[in-house]
Amino acid sequence: MPSAVRYGIIGAGAVADFHHVPGILLDPRSSLTAICDPNQALLDQRQSEWGPLKAFTDYRQLAADPDVDAVIIATPNFLHREQALECARHGKHVMCEKPLGLNFQESAEMYRAARDAGVRHMTAFTYRFAPSMRYVRHLVKTGLLGTPRHFRSQRFLDLPETSWGWRQNKQSAGAGDLFDMTIHRIDFAQDLLGPIRTICGAVAQFAPRDRTADGLPCPPSEVDDWSSLIGFFESGAVGVWEGSTLMKGHNNGGVGYEWAEVNCSEGSAAYQLTDPNNIILSRNGRDLEKLPVPSEFLKAPGSPRDPSHGKPSTVFRYDLVYELTSAIIEERDAVPGFHDGALAQAVADSVLISFDQRRWVDIQADLG
Length: 368
Hints:
This protein is α/β, with parallel strands linked by helices. It has two domains: 5-126, 3-Layer(aba) Sandwich (Rossmann fold), CATH 3.40.50; 127-312 and 344-355, Dihydrodipicolinate Reductase, domain 2 (2-Layer Sandwich). 33% of the residues lie in helices and 23% in strands. The protein is built from eleven helices and 15 strands. Strands 14-13-12-11-7-10-9-8-15 form a nine-stranded mixed beta sheet. The protein has a six-stranded parallel beta sheet with strand order 3-2-1-4-5-6, with helices on both faces. Helix 1 (14-26) packs across helix 10 (319-330) and helix 4 packs parallel to helix 5 (104-117).
């Protein structure tokens, strides 16, 4: 059981810089030891910004490095499977960005590999760690709102209509908004209300994205800008999800717009990404009102993060690394694990099947 966890990061781009490196540096039980990226110029930049580190252009070298205990994978979607399998083969604990793979089959394989290797594994479902979402979960799981009946979420962004690069190619991304944003809401809906039993869904593409930001022509987008689904949970509750990256006016300083609510037999609660330290709550027939999230839910228990510092819609993301470090030191499962990522992927895959075949789809998710 290590007293300090030495991290390596595969993929030195914006997600690692924004989410993961601050979380590593914040926790005295963790340290950043090595980074990997095929872009040597970016590696040199990160060495300057993040401090002197081991640097690799081949992820296999980082995965085999004896000075690395745990790896964070923040690379394009099509690379997740091979990199996670390599890390598990070398006994590295691993956190991977979502979606875990390009489909449920890849994600389930990643889960089995990590499970069988006996390493801690975690899917980077960031929004589970938002203070108001943590409090909503407490209200639901303790029965304070009664029996859950209905879940609804909207996630809107106002992004440029120029090329997304690898993210707009099906072979490298799998899907667009569905795999990038809506899959988060699928995950925390299942965390709140249990497994989804059956769904119908749809996707749409509004922008061709056939120009780069510099105005140069490029292959057009193959993925969705909008996704939506209606589902029935095994519990009998129902859910409605909608997301889009092209909703004008919903930039909100880069945060976008998000609303997620659960309506139960004795009350309702809602979370907003733009105001994650407050909750919208109603109980015992009263009107919905905005209330502060109780202090014990503003961060993960024991986290060294000061929730009064920093931008509320950003800083809760640092608790992801804290959770994985804690799971490694305490020799327990990390939450959410690869199995959670795979189960969300099964639902997202079913949205594409449903739309393609214009029918309801029962969720098939045998993790093996």
